[in-house]
Amino acid sequence: MTESGNLKIAQPGYIDELLRKRQVTGFSKVPFMKEWATDEIPENVDTSPELIKEAQQRCGEILWTTQRTRPDAAYAAMMMARLTTRWPERAIQIAKKILCYYNATKDAAFVVEPHQEAKLVLYTDASHSLAGTKSISGSLVLWKGVAICWRAANQSLRALSSAEAELIALSEGAQLLRSVKTTLEDMGIRPEMCELRVDATAAIAVASSGGSWRTRHLRLREHWLSELVNSDEYQLMHQPGLHQLADGLTKQLTSERVWKLMEAWSFFKGNSSEMKKVKNPL
Hints:
By secondary structure, this protein is of the alpha/beta class. The chain has nine helices and eight strands. The chain has two domains: 7-110, no CATH class; 116-239, Ribonuclease H-like superfamily/Ribonuclease H (Nucleotidyltransferase, domain 5).
């Protein structure tokens, strides 16, 4: 608990032990470098069983934090996970970068305030891949103004346009929202409103009124979304890109931008003195 009576949620013990175990002494302002965001794997990459095992172990250590109390590194962890068997050396490099970032932001935590509006809000975003690979979806669910569920992952099929990528992200996020809503209702809690917020007007138009899609799979997603948003329980809304809270789940942003968005998640950097010492990211 904080001095003001708010609930503070973090994993300081686990993270401190992880930093000690991995003998981390460096610091970083960001958990990931933008130039690492590529699907091009060099030839003759070392994929020995020993290296893959280390990459998978480090990946598991990081995911234990990003799936619970460190959403600020969720995108970096997703990029790391997709490389553990294909490019283990790079995956290990990303893991080390994330730990240096944790070392600089030890005080980061969720701060839960009581008496917030009983509203369930979904934010979705997509990063469309122009290289013919699968795009990335980001989904965030807020309950009473606090992030309770988030996801950064490759999409299940290749999108040929940004509109398709955003539609896929919206449908995946809507399924996540419905799962959270059902869980709350099983606990006897009924949200006053469920909002779906997306910054792509094309995806909103399709989800609201339908459209023509190239595959049966996309048509099914569109029909399902149309039924959902036309019901009285869900409201589809346009969210300007500047305030799209799921933005950091699909791409690496600047440190300042990340923490600006994280504050809207009720996730705060705290008073980490080591962050102030970092002049240049590692």
